[in-house]
UniProtKB/TrEMBL annotation:
<feature type="coiled-coil region">
    <location>
        <begin position="155"/>
        <end position="182"/>
    </location>
</feature>
<keyword id="KW-0175">Coiled coil</keyword>
<dbReference type="InterPro" id="IPR013467">
    <property type="entry name" value="HNH78-like"/>
</dbReference>
<protein>
    <recommendedName>
        <fullName>TIGR02646 family protein</fullName>
    </recommendedName>
</protein>
Amino acid sequence: MRRIEKDREPACLADLRGTPGAAWSSVHGTQRQQMREHASKEQHGLCAYCMSRLPGPPSAEGMKIEHFKTRALSPELVFDWGNLLGVCLGDVGIHDGGGAHRDRYHCDTYRGHLPREEQRIELNPAASPPDVSSMFSYTNQGEMRPARGLEPAMRASAEAQIERLNLNIARLQRNRRAVIEALRSEFQKKAPRAARVKALLELSSTPDSTGLLPPYCQAAAYYLEKKLRQLG
C-alpha cells in the first residue's frame, strides 16, 4: 500500500454537495466516470489497496470508487474527495457467485461482504499521518505484514487492514513475490551495488512518462530499501 497525494476534487462533487437530498445512488454515469478518471490519475494507475493495475482508460468494467470510511458508518463523508479512492473490482469478475466466493475476493469487494461492524479500517492511503507506505512490510514470498516497530495500536490497525481487505490471498502474494523475485534474480546475476539499488528504487517509485507506476511497486520499494540498509 502506498500513500496517495490527493489532487483537486472533480467538479461534480461540489455540485452533488450543493444538491439538496443528493445521495450516492443518485450519482449518474458521467459523474462516476469523472471520479474514476481523477482517482486513476492521482493513484498513477494502481488500486489504492492491493496496488494491482487499474484499467486504462478507466471504466466501470475494471474499477470503482470506494468510500474509505463507509457510507453507512460515515454518511457525512459520502462526497468528500479525501474519503474516495479508486479500487479494483477485487476479482469479482473472476469469481462470480457473490458470497460463495468471498474468501477469494479482496479490497473493497471483500470488505463489503463483512458484517457492518467489521468493515471499519483506519489507515487511509490518502491521509497522512500516518503514511501507509511505512505501515507495511513484505516478505520475499509476497506476504504483506505490519511493519516492524509499530506501536501496539498501530500494529493492530495494520493487521486489521490486511485482514479486512483480504490482501494476503494467494494471487496477490504470488504477484508481489514475482516482483521481488525479478529483483532478486538480477542481484544473483551480479552483486548489487548501492548505486544500482538506488536507481532501481527510483524506477519503482517514480511514475513513467504516461504517469503510471509499476504494479505492486511498494513491495519492490520495501525490498530495495532493505537491500540498501544491508549494503550500509
